[in-house]
Specification:
Chain lengths: ~325, ~220
């Protein structure tokens, strides 16, 4: 539709220009000009009511940031899991009454088995010391009068495929109270990750739908506000595309703004989490750092926002413009 | 230029707004359309603009049967017709210049042409010095002249007006009618709906009279 003129726009006179010559070219220029004016006019209308627009952007931003933020978190979690992934290892927790000497002997004996590559013995005293320094629960441990930890033998299987069978076999030893295959929790973590990703996708899909509906409703209001103008423009020969154009741009601006807000929100949350995560990583002696969206990820969010904005505007325009008489 | 052949229009409520109306208006003619309120004048103009479709009969404009114009062709059809409304239908959030420029922007005229044509149209209706004014700051007669400038700016072959003097006093009405006569003299076909018989019978043009949807006088040119 007709954008309001920007002040001081260049208007030249060109007397006597031939009417029909270059008419097509003029029409193309006029069309391009209308696109430019529509885009600028829609943007200035959006900026004219800053509070309402910022609220709309924020709503869209939050709806987009939520699934994207969760996905970033999962991505990081996955990297964390990968860091810990070591060759399968079986932890043998020994019975309470097994002495240090018996345990050392057992570790040495096991190491000679064909299906075992190596063993490492960690006495209950060593384990307590390690736990004390790593966990920061020193005071709590000091207040206990006896060491709650059992002796531990770490067993590296000769071949990973037989690890599960080996674990079962080792659990049958009389000195062993429990044998844990470390791969098990990694596998559990893996399936938990798959499940979480699915969940994020489902939530993301719903929120994206929500964004389209919010934008559709915003555009519907914009259409209502300009109903009279739409009628006049239709009466003097404005095509549907012409009437549609400024509203599509309005949707685009709301969507792009929402995408920018979403990228900012994700970056802000990561920045907020970076320090505690860094401290935790230091505690566990890894150099793990949170990884954000990156420039490309942020840009993709903005593009996604823009596309959703256009989709919402299309929806509103298709539903509401046709209802305005005359046709 | 405009011809109706046994045209009837029944609105969905079952009311017959036009019944078997036939007439033809030649190129370069200025014709008045009169009749009491509810006689069907606006309906007849709406059929020409394709705001409505006839229930029966055939409407032709510039030799073209309007039944052959599909919904995609409607914008192009309307661009060939200038329309003046009783309540002017100006856009009050932008100045006079932009209101008059509307049809040119819609038709995709080059920016340079727009300024030239808008000023020519405003000059014709005597409002050249008000191009930056907002419509609210204009009198009723001036607003109507802005509406007329908008109707003629794209140089349509046909000019329709629905009660263009409805809200104006007699001397302003006469000025407006004189404007229409001037456009007619440069070759525009003009059809003006008006129930102001005192005014239009003083001007010497054909008068088509409708009564309850029937054409009762002025059908033959
Ligand atoms: N959109 C409509 N739906 C139903 N009836 C209508 C509609 N428009 C006009 N009419 C009826 O058609 C008749 C002719 O109306 P109109 O063409 O507006 O007459 P005029 O312009 O001569 O006053 C009137 O009785 C009016 O009530
Ligand atoms: Mg009427």
């Amino acid at each position: 539709m007709i954008p309001r003129r920007n002040k001081g726009e260049r208007r030249e006179r060109r007397e006597g220009a031939s009417e029909s010559r270059a008419r097509l070219r003029d029409q193309y220029n006029g069309w391009l000009h209308h696109h430019r004016l529509s885009a600028a006019d829609s943007l200035s209308r959006v900026l004219e009511s800053p509070v309402a627009s910022v609220l709309t952007w924020l709503v869209i931003g939050i709806a987009l940031a939520l699934p994207v933020g969760l996905d970033v978190a999962l991505e990081n979690f996955g990297r964390l899991g990968a860091q810990w992934e070591s060759p399968a290892q079986i932890s043998l927790f020994l019975q309470e009454e097994v002495s240090t000497d018996v345990a050392t002997e057992l570790a040495g004996g096991l190491a000679t088995r064909a299906d075992i590559a190596a063993t490492r013995f960690i006495s209950r005293e060593e384990a307590l010391e390690e736990f004390r320094t790593l966990s920061g629960f020193g005071d709590v441990l000091d207040s206990l009068d006896s060491n709650p930890l059992p002796h531990l033998i770490l067993v590296s299987p000769a071949d990973e495929a037989g690890a599960a069978a080996l674990r079962q076999n080792l659990e049958g030893l009389p000195e062993v109270s429990e044998a844990l295959l470390d791969m098990e929790w990694l596998q559990r973590l893996e399936s938990l990750m798959v499940l979480s990703r699915r969940l994020v996708q489902a939530v993301g899909g719903l929120l994206v739908l929500g964004v389209v509906l919010i934008l559709g409703n915003t555009i519907r209001l914009a259409i209502e506000n300009r109903r009279e103008e739409i009628v006049v423009v239709k009466l003097i020969g404005g095509s549907n595309a012409f009437v549609r154009r400024p509203f599509l741009y309005t949707g685009l601006w709301y969507g792009v703004g929402g995408g920018v807000f979403a990228a900012a929100l994700v970056a802000l949350s990561l920045w907020f989490l970076q320090q505690p995560v860094g401290e935790l990583a230091a505690l566990y002696d890894t150099d793990f750092r949170l990884e954000g969206l990156g420039v490309m990820g942020g840009l993709n969010l903005v593009i996604l926002g823009g596309m959703l904005g256009l989709a919402g505007a299309w929806l509103a325009v298709a539903r509401h413009l046709v209802r305005i008489e005359p046709h | 230029m405009i011809s109706f052949e046994r045209v009837s229009k029944r609105y969905s409520e079952g009311h017959d707004a036009l019944r078997e109306v036939s007439f033809a208006i030649n190129r370069d003619e200025l014709v008045f359309l009169t009749g009491h309120s509810g006689a069907g004048k606006s309906t007849l103009l709406r059929l020409i603009m394709l705001m409505e479709r006839p229930s029966r009969g055939q409407v032709s404009v510039d030799g073209k049967n309007l039944a052959t114009v599909g919904s995609r062709g409607i914008p192009q059809h309307r661009r060939n017709i200038g329309v003046v409304f009783q309540n002017h239908q100006l856009l009050f959030d932008r100045p006079v210049f932009d209101n008059v420029a509307l049809p040119l922007v819609i038709a995709g005229y080059d920016q340079r042409d727009v300024g030239r044509r808008v000023r020519a149209a405003l000059d014709k209706v005597g409002l050249l010095d008000r191009e930056r004014a907002m419509p609210v700051s204009l009198s009723g007669g001036e607003q109507q002249r802005v509406g007329i400038a908008r109707a003629v700016v794209a140089k349509p072959k046909i000019l329709l007006a629905d009660e263009p003097t409805g809200n104006l006093d007699p001397s302003l009405s006469a000025e407006i009618m004189q404007l229409f006569e001037e456009f007619n003299q440069v070759g525009v076909t003009v059809l003006i709906a008006s129930h102001d018989l005192a005014l239009i019978s003083r001007l010497r043009h054909r008068i088509i009279t409708l009564d309850q949807g029937r054409l009762i006088a002025g059908g033959a040119s």
